[in-house]
């Protein structure tokens, strides 16, 4: 089957193949990331000799170490992908996640586990780079909601498996003593097994990425299609048809090397090699093995304007606030479920937790992932298609605080309703989060002044989000330790309310932006992000 790149560049086909390959690369990361959420709280207790003092804070640090390193390096990785290409950065990032997971599983001291998380975040710039690749793969605005949804969809799918792995594979010598003896490898390293599985999945993702993932950076795509013959400039209707053997061999080898490009083939000629004609040449009537390629980007295109406009900054701030309370939820939920209750059943408990086990947490997180998949696959595309990108973005942020006000009161309701209450909070969190992130990324792309700085814009946004995810876990852990579970949940709701207020400063439309088109600067005006129809015209002289 030909790759998506062999299609006509004006084709409106959805880039299913390349998005799938990219999704497999992305899929491996949440398996490694989410698997630790289920057992981080108890792992901290084990590393501290069973001491539960401030365990929620130290567990939050483990989660945030990855994000802080990612925040420090995301812009750099985005800039490197602009210069050297997206594919090598993605593959290198996966290698970083694998190394981090292996060290983390072998950690016997808290600082080693913390260092492993930091290394994983520092070596991984895939969040911004993969989103940039999605933006570059999609050429039709109508495909953007579906395409952007693939990344959180895959994250959710990987999160299901990762959460289950963390809950059911951690401490195997304790839960499966007949298979894993206490004096064996997994008895000495109780958290190695889920990380080994994560490493195996990541290695498979790296291999398939090396083989099948194609470069999307406009300046780093294969340029062999520009000319099959290196002496193309001297080949015309006066060139002798009889060539030397060496030149014929060179021509055939280069022709094969570019056989994945669109060609015009004269099938009636009974020869064992393809006959290709270049419609660009005045000598089209002569037989000349030159491909007809899509127009190659100019290598010397540059953009000298401002990469970050007001709309980009405001949408990024909205993403930062969402990232903060999303990460707070992800770290607070397992802690609240695992922590022991501070009040008898049936009474409101504003201090303690719900007293569940690691296996219970794994089940809740896995079911949450399944719910998220349903929302991602069914509800999200229908909702955004009917409501629009902008309104979906607004509504999700406005109603987001509701996801956090349920949890503090679960201890006061009958035990039979506790689980439904947990799932209600999970559903609200998944619904709003799955809708708002892709919509915000579409708004970011729409506001980007030039494709040449798209990696930088996404790098800034993801770096800022990583910074928020860095601060969130330890801060919510401190609040939990100092004020109890209810205070931690209400702090999440408070940040979500700040996000609602911040919406007043997010422009629905952005000003005309300067872009580079075929080496010329033009003014590109976009309408509402949902039904963007752009037109270009020369920039009026001031």
Order of helices and strands: HHHHHHHHHHHHHHHHHEEE
Largest sheet: 3 strands, antiparallel
Q: Which segments are poorly predicted (pLDDT under 50) over 5 or more consecutive residues?
A: 1-7, 223-234, 248-298, 511-542
Mean pLDDT: 76
Helical content band: 55-70%
Compute the gyration radius: what is it? 27 Å
Quantity of strands, as a count? 3
Termini separation: 51 Å
Task: Write up this protein.
The chain has 542 residues and is mainly α. Helix content is 59%, strand content 3%. It contains 17 helices and 3 strands. The chain has helices at residues 16-35, 40-47, 55-84, 86-106, 110-122, 126-137, 144-169, 172-175, 185-188, 192-212, 245-257, 310-338, 358-387, 389-399, 418-447, 454-483, 485-502; strands at 513-517, 520-525, 535-538. The protein has a 3-stranded antiparallel sheet with strand order 1-2-3, with no helix packed on it. Helix 4 runs antiparallel to helix 10 (192-212). The radius of gyration is 27 Å and the shape is globular. Mean pLDDT is 76; it is low at 1-7, 223-234, 248-298 and 511-542.
Layout: helices, strands, pairs:
Elements: H1 16-35, H2 40-47, H3 55-84, H4 86-106, H5 110-122, H6 126-137, H7 144-169, H8 172-175, H9 185-188, H10 192-212, H11 245-257, H12 310-338, H13 358-387, H14 389-399, H15 418-447, H16 454-483, H17 485-502, E1 513-517, E2 520-525, E3 535-538
Antiparallel strand pairs: 1-2, 2-3
